[in-house]
Write a structure and sequence with these properties.
Length: about 525
Protein backbone atom coordinates (compact mmCIF):
# COMPACT_ATOMS: atom_id res chain seq x y z
CA UNK A 1 0.00 0.00 0.00
CA UNK A 2 2.82 2.45 0.93
CA UNK A 3 4.58 1.67 -2.33
CA UNK A 4 1.38 2.33 -4.35
CA UNK A 5 0.77 5.64 -2.61
CA UNK A 6 4.36 6.74 -3.04
CA UNK A 7 4.43 5.87 -6.72
CA UNK A 8 1.12 7.64 -7.34
CA UNK A 9 2.44 10.75 -5.63
CA UNK A 10 5.64 10.49 -7.61
CA UNK A 11 3.75 10.18 -10.90
CA UNK A 12 1.68 13.25 -10.06
CA UNK A 13 4.79 15.24 -9.12
CA UNK A 14 6.57 14.27 -12.32
CA UNK A 15 3.49 15.10 -14.37
CA UNK A 16 3.18 18.54 -12.84
CA UNK A 17 6.89 19.29 -13.09
CA UNK A 18 7.15 18.20 -16.71
CA UNK A 19 3.79 19.56 -17.87
CA UNK A 20 2.39 16.08 -18.62
CA UNK A 21 -1.20 14.90 -18.33
CA UNK A 22 -2.16 13.59 -14.92
CA UNK A 23 -3.33 10.00 -14.46
CA UNK A 24 -7.09 9.40 -14.54
CA UNK A 25 -7.32 9.06 -10.74
CA UNK A 26 -5.56 12.38 -10.25
CA UNK A 27 -7.70 14.10 -12.92
CA UNK A 28 -10.87 12.98 -11.14
CA UNK A 29 -9.71 14.77 -8.01
CA UNK A 30 -9.26 18.08 -9.81
CA UNK A 31 -12.23 20.42 -9.22
CA UNK A 32 -12.23 21.62 -12.82
CA UNK A 33 -10.88 18.44 -14.41
CA UNK A 34 -12.99 16.32 -16.77
CA UNK A 35 -16.32 14.75 -15.87
CA UNK A 36 -16.25 13.31 -12.35
CA UNK A 37 -17.29 9.67 -11.98
CA UNK A 38 -18.80 10.41 -8.56
CA UNK A 39 -22.45 10.74 -9.56
CA UNK A 40 -23.50 12.28 -6.22
CA UNK A 41 -20.93 15.08 -6.52
CA UNK A 42 -21.20 15.80 -10.24
CA UNK A 43 -23.27 18.92 -11.05
CA UNK A 44 -26.13 18.51 -13.56
CA UNK A 45 -24.43 20.91 -16.01
CA UNK A 46 -21.74 18.25 -16.51
CA UNK A 47 -24.24 15.61 -17.64
CA UNK A 48 -25.33 14.30 -21.02
CA UNK A 49 -28.63 12.41 -20.73
CA UNK A 50 -29.55 9.37 -22.83
CA UNK A 51 -33.32 8.80 -23.11
CA UNK A 52 -34.26 5.12 -23.27
CA UNK A 53 -37.71 3.70 -23.98
CA UNK A 54 -36.94 0.50 -22.12
CA UNK A 55 -39.31 -1.80 -24.03
CA UNK A 56 -37.71 -0.84 -27.36
CA UNK A 57 -34.05 -0.92 -26.32
CA UNK A 58 -32.80 -4.46 -25.66
CA UNK A 59 -34.31 -7.77 -24.50
CA UNK A 60 -32.06 -9.05 -21.74
CA UNK A 61 -34.53 -11.47 -20.12
CA UNK A 62 -36.80 -13.50 -22.39
CA UNK A 63 -38.54 -14.89 -19.31
CA UNK A 64 -40.64 -11.72 -18.99
CA UNK A 65 -41.66 -11.52 -22.67
CA UNK A 66 -45.39 -11.57 -21.94
CA UNK A 67 -47.67 -10.50 -24.82
CA UNK A 68 -44.66 -9.59 -26.99
CA UNK A 69 -45.39 -8.93 -30.66
CA UNK A 70 -42.58 -7.12 -32.45
CA UNK A 71 -44.68 -6.85 -35.61
CA UNK A 72 -47.17 -4.62 -33.79
CA UNK A 73 -45.78 -1.10 -33.19
CA UNK A 74 -48.19 -0.59 -30.30
CA UNK A 75 -47.48 -3.83 -28.45
CA UNK A 76 -44.70 -4.88 -26.10
CA UNK A 77 -41.44 -5.71 -27.91
CA UNK A 78 -39.55 -7.35 -25.05
CA UNK A 79 -37.01 -4.73 -23.99
CA UNK A 80 -36.43 -4.73 -20.24
CA UNK A 81 -34.28 -3.51 -17.37
CA UNK A 82 -31.91 -6.44 -17.74
CA UNK A 83 -31.42 -5.35 -21.33
CA UNK A 84 -30.33 -1.91 -20.15
CA UNK A 85 -27.90 -3.56 -17.72
CA UNK A 86 -26.51 -5.68 -20.53
CA UNK A 87 -25.90 -2.56 -22.62
CA UNK A 88 -24.36 -0.33 -19.93
CA UNK A 89 -20.89 -0.71 -21.43
CA UNK A 90 -22.30 0.40 -24.78
CA UNK A 91 -24.08 3.33 -23.15
CA UNK A 92 -20.88 4.34 -21.38
CA UNK A 93 -18.97 4.14 -24.68
CA UNK A 94 -21.25 6.82 -26.13
CA UNK A 95 -19.89 9.31 -23.60
CA UNK A 96 -23.25 9.97 -21.95
CA UNK A 97 -23.30 10.35 -18.18
CA UNK A 98 -26.97 9.77 -17.28
CA UNK A 99 -29.83 7.61 -18.52
CA UNK A 100 -33.51 8.57 -18.41
CA UNK A 101 -35.78 5.54 -18.34
CA UNK A 102 -39.41 5.85 -19.40
CA UNK A 103 -41.80 4.90 -16.54
CA UNK A 104 -41.11 1.52 -14.96
CA UNK A 105 -44.35 1.19 -12.94
CA UNK A 106 -47.01 -1.44 -13.56
CA UNK A 107 -49.05 -0.55 -16.65
CA UNK A 108 -52.26 -1.75 -18.24
CA UNK A 109 -52.42 -3.91 -21.35
CA UNK A 110 -50.31 -2.51 -24.24
CA UNK A 111 -48.81 0.16 -22.01
CA UNK A 112 -45.33 -0.63 -23.29
CA UNK A 113 -44.31 3.03 -22.93
CA UNK A 114 -45.11 3.21 -19.21
CA UNK A 115 -47.52 6.16 -19.11
CA UNK A 116 -50.73 4.16 -18.34
CA UNK A 117 -50.15 3.20 -14.71
CA UNK A 118 -52.30 0.67 -12.91
CA UNK A 119 -50.05 0.46 -9.84
CA UNK A 120 -47.62 3.25 -8.94
CA UNK A 121 -45.76 1.08 -6.43
CA UNK A 122 -44.71 -1.95 -8.51
CA UNK A 123 -42.25 -2.47 -11.36
CA UNK A 124 -44.03 -3.60 -14.50
CA UNK A 125 -43.68 -7.36 -14.96
CA UNK A 126 -42.68 -6.88 -18.61
CA UNK A 127 -39.62 -4.90 -17.51
CA UNK A 128 -38.36 -7.00 -14.61
CA UNK A 129 -38.35 -6.56 -10.84
CA UNK A 130 -37.43 -4.03 -8.19
CA UNK A 131 -34.26 -6.02 -7.57
CA UNK A 132 -33.31 -5.74 -11.26
CA UNK A 133 -33.86 -1.99 -11.13
CA UNK A 134 -31.70 -1.74 -8.02
CA UNK A 135 -28.95 -3.71 -9.78
CA UNK A 136 -29.20 -1.43 -12.80
CA UNK A 137 -28.72 1.65 -10.62
CA UNK A 138 -25.77 0.10 -8.79
CA UNK A 139 -24.01 -1.00 -11.98
CA UNK A 140 -24.67 2.34 -13.67
CA UNK A 141 -23.15 4.15 -10.70
CA UNK A 142 -20.06 1.94 -10.92
CA UNK A 143 -19.58 3.35 -14.42
CA UNK A 144 -20.19 6.93 -13.32
CA UNK A 145 -23.66 7.01 -14.91
CA UNK A 146 -26.67 8.57 -13.18
CA UNK A 147 -30.16 7.09 -13.49
CA UNK A 148 -33.33 9.18 -13.84
CA UNK A 149 -36.79 7.63 -13.60
CA UNK A 150 -39.74 9.01 -15.55
CA UNK A 151 -42.53 9.76 -13.08
CA UNK A 152 -46.22 10.54 -13.73
CA UNK A 153 -48.37 12.31 -11.14
CA UNK A 154 -50.93 13.94 -13.46
CA UNK A 155 -53.01 10.91 -14.40
CA UNK A 156 -53.51 7.15 -14.17
CA UNK A 157 -54.18 4.58 -16.85
CA UNK A 158 -57.82 4.11 -17.80
CA UNK A 159 -57.78 0.67 -16.15
CA UNK A 160 -56.32 1.79 -12.81
CA UNK A 161 -58.48 0.36 -9.98
CA UNK A 162 -58.96 3.83 -8.49
CA UNK A 163 -60.72 5.04 -11.65
CA UNK A 164 -63.47 2.48 -11.03
CA UNK A 165 -63.63 2.77 -7.24
CA UNK A 166 -66.72 4.76 -6.07
CA UNK A 167 -64.93 5.60 -2.80
CA UNK A 168 -62.16 7.39 -4.72
CA UNK A 169 -64.18 9.51 -7.12
CA UNK A 170 -62.93 12.64 -5.35
CA UNK A 171 -59.38 11.58 -6.26
CA UNK A 172 -60.09 12.65 -9.84
CA UNK A 173 -61.27 15.66 -11.78
CA UNK A 174 -64.40 15.15 -13.85
CA UNK A 175 -64.05 17.94 -16.41
CA UNK A 176 -63.67 15.62 -19.39
CA UNK A 177 -61.06 16.06 -22.14
CA UNK A 178 -59.13 19.34 -22.31
CA UNK A 179 -61.17 21.68 -24.51
CA UNK A 180 -59.37 25.03 -24.18
CA UNK A 181 -55.57 24.97 -24.32
CA UNK A 182 -55.46 28.68 -23.50
CA UNK A 183 -57.21 28.14 -20.15
CA UNK A 184 -54.73 27.05 -17.48
CA UNK A 185 -57.50 25.70 -15.21
CA UNK A 186 -58.75 23.49 -18.03
CA UNK A 187 -55.19 22.37 -18.77
CA UNK A 188 -54.77 21.31 -15.14
CA UNK A 189 -58.22 19.79 -14.56
CA UNK A 190 -59.06 18.34 -17.97
CA UNK A 191 -58.22 14.83 -19.09
CA UNK A 192 -55.13 14.48 -21.30
CA UNK A 193 -55.61 11.82 -24.01
CA UNK A 194 -58.74 10.66 -22.12
CA UNK A 195 -56.65 9.55 -19.14
CA UNK A 196 -58.22 9.93 -15.66
CA UNK A 197 -56.87 13.20 -14.24
CA UNK A 198 -55.73 13.10 -10.61
CA UNK A 199 -56.84 15.87 -8.23
CA UNK A 200 -53.62 16.94 -6.49
CA UNK A 201 -55.53 19.54 -4.45
CA UNK A 202 -57.07 16.59 -2.58
CA UNK A 203 -54.79 16.13 0.42
CA UNK A 204 -55.10 12.34 0.28
CA UNK A 205 -54.00 12.30 -3.37
CA UNK A 206 -51.10 14.68 -2.74
CA UNK A 207 -49.92 12.73 0.30
CA UNK A 208 -50.00 9.46 -1.62
CA UNK A 209 -48.08 10.82 -4.63
CA UNK A 210 -45.45 12.42 -2.40
CA UNK A 211 -45.01 9.28 -0.32
CA UNK A 212 -44.59 6.83 -3.19
CA UNK A 213 -42.06 9.01 -4.98
CA UNK A 214 -40.02 9.42 -1.78
CA UNK A 215 -40.19 5.63 -1.54
CA UNK A 216 -38.86 5.21 -5.10
CA UNK A 217 -35.87 7.35 -4.15
CA UNK A 218 -35.22 5.31 -1.01
CA UNK A 219 -35.79 1.90 -2.62
CA UNK A 220 -33.81 2.36 -5.82
CA UNK A 221 -31.05 4.91 -5.17
CA UNK A 222 -31.86 6.75 -8.41
CA UNK A 223 -30.44 10.23 -8.95
CA UNK A 224 -33.43 12.13 -10.27
CA UNK A 225 -36.87 12.14 -11.84
CA UNK A 226 -38.06 13.29 -15.21
CA UNK A 227 -41.54 14.59 -14.38
CA UNK A 228 -44.18 14.00 -17.02
CA UNK A 229 -46.81 16.60 -18.02
CA UNK A 230 -45.93 19.16 -15.34
CA UNK A 231 -48.06 21.93 -16.91
CA UNK A 232 -51.15 19.81 -16.20
CA UNK A 233 -50.49 19.92 -12.44
CA UNK A 234 -50.74 23.10 -10.29
CA UNK A 235 -47.48 24.88 -9.46
CA UNK A 236 -48.43 24.83 -5.77
CA UNK A 237 -48.14 21.04 -5.83
CA UNK A 238 -44.77 21.19 -7.57
CA UNK A 239 -43.42 23.56 -4.95
CA UNK A 240 -44.30 21.09 -2.20
CA UNK A 241 -43.12 18.16 -4.30
CA UNK A 242 -39.71 19.70 -5.02
CA UNK A 243 -39.16 20.56 -1.36
CA UNK A 244 -39.92 17.00 -0.25
CA UNK A 245 -37.85 15.24 -2.93
CA UNK A 246 -34.88 17.52 -2.29
CA UNK A 247 -35.24 16.84 1.43
CA UNK A 248 -35.37 13.08 0.77
CA UNK A 249 -31.98 13.35 -0.91
CA UNK A 250 -30.03 16.60 -1.19
CA UNK A 251 -29.01 17.20 -4.78
CA UNK A 252 -31.80 15.05 -6.18
CA UNK A 253 -32.49 16.26 -9.74
CA UNK A 254 -35.99 17.16 -10.94
CA UNK A 255 -36.49 17.73 -14.67
CA UNK A 256 -40.00 18.66 -15.75
CA UNK A 257 -41.80 18.39 -19.08
CA UNK A 258 -43.92 21.46 -19.90
CA UNK A 259 -44.69 21.25 -23.61
CA UNK A 260 -45.00 24.88 -24.62
CA UNK A 261 -43.21 27.19 -27.06
CA UNK A 262 -42.96 30.17 -24.68
CA UNK A 263 -39.79 30.21 -22.51
CA UNK A 264 -41.49 32.53 -20.00
CA UNK A 265 -44.29 30.03 -19.46
CA UNK A 266 -41.88 27.13 -18.97
CA UNK A 267 -39.64 29.16 -16.67
CA UNK A 268 -42.54 29.47 -14.24
CA UNK A 269 -42.06 25.83 -13.26
CA UNK A 270 -38.38 26.34 -12.47
CA UNK A 271 -39.45 29.27 -10.32
CA UNK A 272 -41.91 26.93 -8.61
CA UNK A 273 -39.04 24.69 -7.47
CA UNK A 274 -38.10 22.25 -10.26
CA UNK A 275 -34.41 22.17 -11.11
CA UNK A 276 -34.78 21.87 -14.85
CA UNK A 277 -37.32 21.94 -17.65
CA UNK A 278 -37.17 20.21 -21.01
CA UNK A 279 -36.55 22.99 -23.53
CA UNK A 280 -39.29 22.72 -26.15
CA UNK A 281 -38.73 26.28 -27.47
CA UNK A 282 -35.10 25.34 -28.19
CA UNK A 283 -36.09 22.08 -29.86
CA UNK A 284 -38.49 23.93 -32.15
CA UNK A 285 -35.79 26.47 -33.01
CA UNK A 286 -33.27 23.69 -33.71
CA UNK A 287 -35.72 22.07 -36.12
CA UNK A 288 -36.31 25.35 -37.95
CA UNK A 289 -32.61 26.23 -38.22
CA UNK A 290 -31.00 22.88 -38.98
CA UNK A 291 -33.82 20.94 -40.65
CA UNK A 292 -35.62 23.78 -42.48
CA UNK A 293 -32.72 26.19 -43.07
CA UNK A 294 -34.08 29.20 -41.18
CA UNK A 295 -31.88 32.08 -39.96
CA UNK A 296 -29.52 30.65 -37.30
CA UNK A 297 -29.44 33.96 -35.40
CA UNK A 298 -32.84 32.98 -33.92
CA UNK A 299 -30.90 30.63 -31.64
CA UNK A 300 -28.93 33.60 -30.30
CA UNK A 301 -32.18 35.47 -29.65
CA UNK A 302 -33.69 32.49 -27.87
CA UNK A 303 -30.64 32.07 -25.63
CA UNK A 304 -30.85 35.74 -24.64
CA UNK A 305 -34.54 35.32 -23.83
CA UNK A 306 -33.96 32.20 -21.73
CA UNK A 307 -31.13 33.87 -19.83
CA UNK A 308 -33.63 36.58 -18.87
CA UNK A 309 -36.61 34.48 -17.82
CA UNK A 310 -35.13 31.32 -16.24
CA UNK A 311 -33.65 31.55 -12.73
CA UNK A 312 -30.86 29.28 -14.07
CA UNK A 313 -30.84 28.73 -17.84
CA UNK A 314 -27.74 26.51 -17.61
CA UNK A 315 -29.98 23.79 -16.15
CA UNK A 316 -32.51 23.77 -18.99
CA UNK A 317 -32.49 20.40 -20.80
CA UNK A 318 -32.00 20.66 -24.57
CA UNK A 319 -32.81 18.09 -27.27
CA UNK A 320 -33.38 17.66 -31.01
CA UNK A 321 -36.21 15.09 -30.77
CA UNK A 322 -37.80 12.61 -28.37
CA UNK A 323 -40.36 9.82 -28.03
CA UNK A 324 -43.35 12.13 -28.58
CA UNK A 325 -42.41 13.56 -32.00
CA UNK A 326 -40.98 12.42 -35.35
CA UNK A 327 -37.26 11.75 -35.29
CA UNK A 328 -35.05 14.57 -36.53
CA UNK A 329 -33.65 12.77 -39.59
CA UNK A 330 -37.14 11.92 -40.81
CA UNK A 331 -38.47 15.43 -40.23
CA UNK A 332 -35.39 16.95 -41.93
CA UNK A 333 -35.95 15.09 -45.22
CA UNK A 334 -33.16 15.42 -47.77
CA UNK A 335 -29.65 15.36 -46.27
CA UNK A 336 -31.25 14.37 -42.98
CA UNK A 337 -28.15 12.71 -41.55
CA UNK A 338 -25.87 15.62 -42.46
CA UNK A 339 -28.37 18.04 -40.92
CA UNK A 340 -28.49 15.86 -37.80
CA UNK A 341 -24.72 16.12 -37.45
CA UNK A 342 -24.93 19.91 -37.51
CA UNK A 343 -27.83 19.94 -35.03
CA UNK A 344 -25.95 17.63 -32.65
CA UNK A 345 -22.86 19.82 -32.88
CA UNK A 346 -25.00 22.68 -31.60
CA UNK A 347 -26.77 20.56 -28.98
CA UNK A 348 -23.53 19.31 -27.43
CA UNK A 349 -21.63 22.61 -27.49
CA UNK A 350 -24.33 25.12 -26.51
CA UNK A 351 -25.69 25.95 -23.07
CA UNK A 352 -27.99 23.57 -21.24
CA UNK A 353 -28.04 19.86 -20.39
CA UNK A 354 -28.20 17.88 -23.66
CA UNK A 355 -30.53 14.90 -24.08
CA UNK A 356 -29.92 12.24 -26.74
CA UNK A 357 -32.86 10.01 -27.66
CA UNK A 358 -31.80 6.37 -28.07
CA UNK A 359 -31.10 5.62 -31.73
CA UNK A 360 -29.91 9.13 -32.50
CA UNK A 361 -26.35 7.79 -32.47
CA UNK A 362 -27.27 5.58 -35.47
CA UNK A 363 -29.43 8.23 -37.20
CA UNK A 364 -32.56 6.17 -36.62
CA UNK A 365 -35.56 7.11 -38.75
CA UNK A 366 -39.10 7.42 -37.39
CA UNK A 367 -42.31 9.29 -38.10
CA UNK A 368 -45.12 10.07 -35.69
CA UNK A 369 -45.80 7.94 -32.60
CA UNK A 370 -45.39 4.93 -32.55
CA UNK A 371 -43.04 4.89 -35.57
CA UNK A 372 -40.60 7.09 -33.63
CA UNK A 373 -40.26 4.26 -31.07
CA UNK A 374 -38.66 1.61 -33.23
CA UNK A 375 -36.52 -1.16 -31.77
CA UNK A 376 -32.92 -0.09 -31.26
CA UNK A 377 -30.49 -1.16 -34.00
CA UNK A 378 -27.04 -1.29 -32.41
CA UNK A 379 -24.08 -0.64 -34.70
CA UNK A 380 -26.14 0.20 -37.79
CA UNK A 381 -24.34 3.51 -38.47
CA UNK A 382 -20.76 3.42 -37.12
CA UNK A 383 -19.83 6.76 -38.69
CA UNK A 384 -22.67 8.59 -36.91
CA UNK A 385 -21.91 6.83 -33.65
CA UNK A 386 -18.26 7.86 -33.90
CA UNK A 387 -19.31 11.47 -34.55
CA UNK A 388 -21.54 11.46 -31.47
CA UNK A 389 -18.65 10.05 -29.43
CA UNK A 390 -16.38 12.84 -30.71
CA UNK A 391 -18.90 15.43 -29.55
CA UNK A 392 -19.52 13.90 -26.14
CA UNK A 393 -15.78 13.54 -25.59
CA UNK A 394 -15.26 17.21 -26.39
CA UNK A 395 -18.01 18.25 -24.00
CA UNK A 396 -16.51 16.12 -21.27
CA UNK A 397 -13.00 17.44 -21.78
CA UNK A 398 -13.76 21.17 -22.21
CA UNK A 399 -15.16 22.92 -19.17
CA UNK A 400 -16.33 25.80 -21.36
CA UNK A 401 -18.79 23.59 -23.24
CA UNK A 402 -20.40 22.44 -19.98
CA UNK A 403 -20.31 25.51 -17.75
CA UNK A 404 -19.15 28.43 -19.88
CA UNK A 405 -21.14 31.50 -20.82
CA UNK A 406 -22.66 32.12 -24.24
CA UNK A 407 -21.56 34.99 -26.47
CA UNK A 408 -23.02 35.28 -30.01
CA UNK A 409 -20.42 35.87 -32.72
CA UNK A 410 -21.35 37.67 -35.92
CA UNK A 411 -20.24 36.23 -39.26
CA UNK A 412 -20.01 37.67 -42.74
CA UNK A 413 -21.71 36.81 -44.95
CA UNK A 414 -24.57 36.05 -42.55
CA UNK A 415 -27.60 33.84 -42.94
CA UNK A 416 -26.01 30.40 -42.91
CA UNK A 417 -23.18 30.27 -40.36
CA UNK A 418 -23.98 29.95 -36.67
CA UNK A 419 -21.10 31.10 -34.48
CA UNK A 420 -20.78 31.58 -30.73
CA UNK A 421 -18.20 31.55 -27.96
CA UNK A 422 -18.35 29.68 -24.65
CA UNK A 423 -16.14 31.80 -22.38
CA UNK A 424 -15.04 30.72 -18.93
CA UNK A 425 -14.53 33.10 -16.06
CA UNK A 426 -10.74 33.13 -16.39
CA UNK A 427 -10.62 32.60 -20.15
CA UNK A 428 -8.27 29.65 -19.77
CA UNK A 429 -10.65 27.10 -21.30
CA UNK A 430 -12.82 29.24 -23.60
CA UNK A 431 -13.99 27.87 -26.93
CA UNK A 432 -15.62 29.05 -30.14
CA UNK A 433 -18.11 27.06 -32.22
CA UNK A 434 -18.91 27.65 -35.90
CA UNK A 435 -21.53 25.60 -37.74
CA UNK A 436 -22.60 25.72 -41.37
CA UNK A 437 -26.38 25.28 -41.26
CA UNK A 438 -26.69 25.12 -45.06
CA UNK A 439 -26.06 22.62 -47.83
CA UNK A 440 -23.48 24.88 -49.51
CA UNK A 441 -19.83 25.54 -48.73
CA UNK A 442 -19.44 28.73 -46.71
CA UNK A 443 -16.42 31.02 -46.39
CA UNK A 444 -17.02 33.20 -43.36
CA UNK A 445 -15.28 35.95 -41.47
CA UNK A 446 -16.17 35.72 -37.79
CA UNK A 447 -15.91 38.73 -35.46
CA UNK A 448 -14.65 38.12 -31.93
CA UNK A 449 -15.55 40.68 -29.22
CA UNK A 450 -13.50 40.95 -26.04
CA UNK A 451 -16.23 39.26 -23.95
CA UNK A 452 -15.78 36.06 -26.01
CA UNK A 453 -12.73 35.28 -23.87
CA UNK A 454 -10.61 34.14 -26.83
CA UNK A 455 -7.32 35.83 -25.91
CA UNK A 456 -4.92 33.68 -27.91
CA UNK A 457 -3.67 34.56 -31.37
CA UNK A 458 -4.62 31.17 -32.86
CA UNK A 459 -7.46 28.69 -32.51
CA UNK A 460 -7.34 24.98 -33.33
CA UNK A 461 -10.28 22.81 -34.38
CA UNK A 462 -10.91 19.90 -32.00
CA UNK A 463 -13.90 18.26 -33.74
CA UNK A 464 -13.17 15.31 -35.99
CA UNK A 465 -9.96 14.69 -37.91
CA UNK A 466 -9.70 18.17 -39.45
CA UNK A 467 -7.08 19.64 -37.08
CA UNK A 468 -7.16 23.05 -38.73
CA UNK A 469 -5.63 26.10 -37.08
CA UNK A 470 -7.00 29.60 -37.71
CA UNK A 471 -5.39 32.88 -36.75
CA UNK A 472 -7.13 35.76 -35.04
CA UNK A 473 -6.41 39.00 -36.86
CA UNK A 474 -6.76 42.59 -35.73
CA UNK A 475 -9.30 44.63 -37.67
CA UNK A 476 -10.84 48.08 -37.38
CA UNK A 477 -13.91 46.71 -35.62
CA UNK A 478 -11.99 44.24 -33.46
CA UNK A 479 -10.52 40.78 -33.95
CA UNK A 480 -11.66 38.31 -36.63
CA UNK A 481 -10.87 34.85 -37.94
CA UNK A 482 -11.62 33.18 -41.28
CA UNK A 483 -13.04 29.70 -41.78
CA UNK A 484 -14.19 27.61 -44.71
CA UNK A 485 -16.96 25.19 -43.85
CA UNK A 486 -18.27 22.36 -45.99
CA UNK A 487 -22.07 21.76 -46.07
CA UNK A 488 -23.38 21.20 -42.52
CA UNK A 489 -19.82 21.11 -41.14
CA UNK A 490 -19.08 22.19 -37.58
CA UNK A 491 -15.83 23.23 -35.92
CA UNK A 492 -15.03 23.54 -32.21
CA UNK A 493 -12.11 25.93 -31.87
CA UNK A 494 -9.97 26.22 -28.76
CA UNK A 495 -7.08 28.61 -28.07
CA UNK A 496 -3.62 27.40 -29.02
CA UNK A 497 -1.16 27.71 -26.14
CA UNK A 498 1.18 30.63 -26.67
CA UNK A 499 4.98 30.05 -26.47
CA UNK A 500 6.41 31.13 -23.15
CA UNK A 501 8.44 34.30 -23.60
CA UNK A 502 10.81 33.97 -20.65
CA UNK A 503 13.90 31.70 -21.00
CA UNK A 504 13.86 31.32 -17.23
CA UNK A 505 10.76 29.12 -17.37
CA UNK A 506 12.40 26.15 -19.21
CA UNK A 507 15.34 26.41 -16.83
CA UNK A 508 12.95 26.28 -13.90
CA UNK A 509 11.20 23.23 -15.34
CA UNK A 510 14.55 21.51 -15.80
CA UNK A 511 15.46 22.21 -12.18
CA UNK A 512 12.09 20.94 -10.94
CA UNK A 513 12.40 17.83 -13.12
CA UNK A 514 15.88 17.15 -11.70
CA UNK A 515 14.52 17.49 -8.18
CA UNK A 516 11.67 15.12 -9.05
CA UNK A 517 14.12 12.52 -10.35
CA UNK A 518 16.20 12.82 -7.20
CA UNK A 519 13.07 12.36 -5.12
CA UNK A 520 12.17 9.30 -7.20
CA UNK A 521 15.54 7.72 -6.51
CA UNK A 522 15.20 8.46 -2.79
CA UNK A 523 11.66 6.97 -2.62
CA UNK A 524 12.67 3.84 -4.49
CA UNK A 525 15.59 3.27 -2.12
CA UNK A 526 13.40 3.76 0.94
CA UNK A 527 10.80 1.36 -0.44
CA UNK A 528 13.45 -1.30 -1.09
CA UNK A 529 14.83 -0.93 2.43
CA UNK A 530 11.33 -1.11 3.89
CA UNK A 531 10.58 -4.35 2.04
CA UNK A 532 13.62 -6.19 3.49
Amino acid sequence: MRRSIALTALAALLAVSLGLSLPAAARAALPEGGISRDVRQRPPQDDIIYLIMTDRFFDGDTGNDHDVNRDDPQAYHGGDLQGVIDKLDYIQSLGVTAIWLTPVVQNQDRGYHGYWATDFEKVDRHLGSLETLQTLVQQAHQRGIKVLLDVVVNHTGADHPWAHDPSRQDWFHHDGPIANWNDQANIENGWLFDLPDLAQENAAVADYLLRIDRDWIARTGVDGFRLDTVRHVPKTFWTTYAAQMHAARPGFFLMGEAWNSDPSYIAGYQKAGLDSLVDFPRQQAIQKVFAAGNDPSTLHDLQAKEDQVFPDSSLVATFVDNHDMPRFVTAAGDDGEAKLRAALAYLLTARGIPILYYGTEVAMQGGKDPDNRRDMTFGSDPAMTSYVQDLTSLRQSLTALRRGGYVPLTSSPGGAVLAYARPTADGADSAAVVINTSGKTQQASVSVPAEAGLKASSLRNRLGSKAETVRLKEAAAGRTFQVTLQPYEAMVLVPVSEPRPSPAVPALLTAVAAAAVALAVYLVRRLRLGSR
